[in-house]
Amino acid sequence: MKVRTTLILMAFLGCSVGASAGQEFDGAAAYQYVKAQVEFGPRIPNTEGHRRTGDWILQHLRDTADSVEEQSFEHVTQDGDTLELRNLIGKFRPEMTERVLYVAHWDSRPKADQSANLGDQQRPLPGANDGASGVAVLLGVADVLARIPPTFGVDLVMVDGEDFGDFGQGIDVLLGARYYARHLDPAQPKPLFAVVFDMVGDADLTFVQESGSMARAPEVVERVWSTASRLGYGRIFRSQRGGPITDDHIPLLDAGIRAIDVIDFDYGPNNSYWHTVDDTPDKVSAESLQAVGDVAIALVR
Question: What residues contact 166, with CB distance under 8 A and at least 6 apart?
């Protein structure tokens, strides 16, 4: 029987660790995982907050997953700085060849460059929704799968260095996903499908179907959206086409994985919380995390 150090943290934080009746996933616990990450401080590569958060995630995976892997690597930025990065991977039923891949990024952006105040633009991003929410969902999924194993093999991959650089130029971004995709074992079959969970905790949560996902893995979009509809979350997972998003699904698609991006890129009035100092836990809700977690669990049952 695995010792759950995460449960000790949850008790300390004073939240219930039991899901609502009839639900496996615990949205309230996932919300506490969001808060815990933010409380470690900015998860900027090469900082103490980054190291402590990574160690905490890794311990959670060791407490829940059947096997754990840490992919450590370095990246030299366009400015010549060397980033110490690591992808954190928890596997359930590793013996199975039919697998599902879930991905979220665990780093946070060095500067809140979209903040209205010029001074705030030099401050680090809290990253409650942009980073911590996706990780919280994956950690909540790990809690569930530790109790009741999935039908398929499941890999939970927390990638590093997604949000470091310039998305407009595609420089110093998606670093962990690119590393993971480049180091796939060619002797192993590709996952049945992959889902990237990014910015999934907005209290006013809505997902549209990202156009790159629709173009390159439409059957996975259909699988996810139909599952959400069956669970009663059609008002959140809306069957309408959105624009393209540069995110971690792109390196996975380029590596031949049928991957999609589940992202709410409408965060706050006129997207005013995105990449700003306002990306704080009070903008995230347990109910939103519950909906996403329920869908994630249903997909592997």
Answer: 172, 173
Task: State the Cα–Cα distance between residues 99 and 91, nearest whole angstrom.
Answer: 10
C-alpha 267/C-alpha 226 separation (Å) is 24
pTM > 0.85? yes
Name the amino acid, one letter, at 148.
I
**Dist CA 216 CA 209 (whole Å):** 12
One digit per residue, pLDDT tens: the chain, 301 residues?
A: 333 444 434 433 434 334 554 589 999 999 999 999 999 999 999 999 999 999 999 999 999 999 999 999 999 999 999 999 999 999 999 999 999 999 999 999 999 999 999 999 999 999 999 999 999 999 999 999 999 999 999 999 999 999 999 999 899 999 999 999 999 999 999 999 999 999 999 999 999 999 999 999 999 999 999 999 999 999 999 999 999 999 999 999 999 999 999 999 999 999 999 999 999 999 999 999 999 999 999 999 9
> Which amino acid appears at position 283 of this protein?
K
Facing residues of 75 across strands? 83
∠ CA(10), CA(13), CA(15), 5° rounding?
65
State how far the alpha carbon of 184 is from the alpha carbons of 117, 139, 163, 190, in Å: 42, 23, 22, 9
Per the structure block, which two tokens stand in for 238? 């809306």
CB contact at 8 A, 261 and 245: yes
Secondary structure letter of residue 151 according to DSSP: S
Q: Are strands 207-209 and 237-241 parallel, antiparallel or unpaired?
A: parallel
Do strands 193-198 and 207-209 pair parallel, antiparallel, or not at all (unpaired)? unpaired
Q: Which of 110, 45, 48 is nearest to 76 (CA)?
A: 45
Terminal Cα distance for the chain, rounded: 22
Residue 274 and residue 210 in contact, taking contact as beta carbons nearer than 8 Å: no
